[in-house]
TrEMBL record:
Species the sequence originates in: Companilactobacillus versmoldensis DSM 14857 = KCTC 3814
Matching SUPFAM superfamilies: Carbohydrate phosphatase (SSF56655)
Protein name: Fructose-1 6-bisphosphatase
Statement: the UniProt record of this protein carries the keyword Isomerase: no
Superkingdom: Bacteria
CC cofactor: Mg(2+)
Keyword Hydrolase part of the UniProt annotation: yes
Amino acid sequence: MKEKSQEIDNFLVGLLHDVVSKLVKEVKMNKNVNTKSGPNDLVTNFDKSTEKGIVEIIKEHYPDSSVVSEEGFGDDIKSMSGLVFFVDPIDGTMNFVKCHDSFASMVGVYLDGEPFVGAIINVMQDKIYHGGPELGVFENDQRLSEPINQELKEGLVVISGPMVLKNYLNTQDVVGKSSGIRIFGCAGIVFEHLLTGKEIIYMSYLKPWDLAAGRVLCESLGLSVARVDEKPVDMLQSQVVIAGTKKAVSEVLKTVKI
Ligand code: 2AM
Ligand code: CA
Ligand code: CA
Ligand code: CA
């Protein structure tokens, strides 16, 4: 299985580098922007074209796999059996539209429901975070070491803006117990920050493609990924997730009120 995960890891690194070289050219171009569920939920022509390209290449290389993706080019799956690729072509679409640098492309791969390989590319910095439980986690070619298991009071937290503003699930108490809050509007960039120890908690409502790659990488590097209701994480559902150091995640689970 290690050989298979290494092969998929190499495949994802090549695929996301190709995506980046195109997106960097497109970031300053006029974008065709549409709304989805509301005025802050955007999709552009580049989200769609990027996803279409990624899904086609995955299907060409792994024809027996399933693909779950945000903008509708993937499959509708009911089970996690076999090889499942989760694709978020542009994570942080609002940032992309506003020409902020914090956006990413992400692919997370699961084998029979278990985290297998993940890759997140920070497009504007051309840094790719990739690996899996059998490989370890890398920033480009550099192996990352496990972040220090800090307590909540020792580190910064990231919690989605709307959740904190409404004190949803008592999240303002979580912020009060920490070193402070940062908000980036891009799940992939926050996962990058957890892997490199810049922040120690990420709490947000995440869809499967927002979570898939980050969960693989966090768990492969000794970080915890839990559901706020402490049920097992379900990759076929959206859920409120708390990711971060083991100590801080356990403190957040005791602080939130569900
Ligand atoms: P996206 O840019 O791929 O849609 C977690 O907050 C993730 O949710 C973000 O990385 C972003 O991914 C998405 N998101 C942020 N604001 C959103 C909104 N208002 N509606 C829907 N999805 C949103
Ligand atoms: Ca979106
Ligand atoms: Ca996303
Ligand atoms: Ca997206």
